């Protein structure tokens, strides 16, 4: 029996979604892409109650957060590894990834921009 393809929920404007699409494509995973507006699509809240993209649906398993999804994909699809074996290189790679995910990207998010535009 064929296994269902994983489904990635994302949006064209979302760099977090792009990260996961790049990982899926580098690994050659056959997946379905569904574009959503996480703020206005009422059905999306049922998939990811915190209403953030991306989210990956793999069978009955739902995972959100781009880095968590990428590390899940790395374990599930070991072909074309994304994470180095060398622990120092791996540490530095995760450092860069976390700076992007936690220190740079959130400042460009809708929430921050909307608050800044109201206050500034
Ligand atoms: N740490 C999360 C951040 C997710 C995130 O900020 N997603 C943005 C799009 S890139 C989002 O869904 N924003 C919706 C909103 O601000 O309402 C990740 O890396 O996936």
Automatic annotation (TrEMBL):
Instruction: Name the Gene3D superfamilies on file.
Output: Glutaredoxin
Listed under catalytic activity are:
RX + glutathione = an S-substituted glutathione + a halide anion + H(+)
Q: Which InterPro entries match?
A: Glutathione_S-Trfase (IPR040079), Glutathione_S-Trfase_N (IPR004045), GST_Zeta_N (IPR034333), Thioredoxin-like_sf (IPR036249)
Query: Entry's Pfam families?
Result: GST_N_3
Q: Which UniProt keywords apply?
A: Transferase
User: What are the GST N-terminal domain coordinates in residue numbering?
Assistant: 4-81
List, alphabetically, the SUPFAM superfamilies matched: Thioredoxin-like
Recorded GO MF terms:
glutathione transferase activity; maleylacetoacetate isomerase activity
Q: What is its EC number?
A: 2.5.1.18
GO BP terms? glutathione metabolic process; L-phenylalanine catabolic process
Assigned protein family: Belongs to the GST superfamily. Zeta family.
Protein name (record): glutathione transferase
């Amino acid at each position: 029996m064929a296994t269902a393809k994983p489904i990635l929920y994302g949006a064209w404007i979302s760099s977090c979604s792009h990260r996961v699409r790049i990982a899926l494509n580098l690994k050659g995973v056959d997946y379905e892409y569904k574009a959503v507006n996480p703020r206005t699509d009422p059905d999306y809240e049922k998939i990811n109650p915190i209403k953030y993209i991306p989210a990956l649906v793999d069978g009955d398993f739902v995972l959100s957060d781009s880095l968590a999804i990428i590390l899940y994909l790395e374990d599930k699809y070991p072909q074309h590894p994304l994470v180095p074996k060398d622990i120092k290189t791996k540490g530095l790679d995760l450092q860069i990834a976390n700076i992007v995910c936690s220190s740079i990207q959130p400042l460009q998010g809708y929430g921050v921009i909307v608050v800044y535009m109201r206050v500034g």
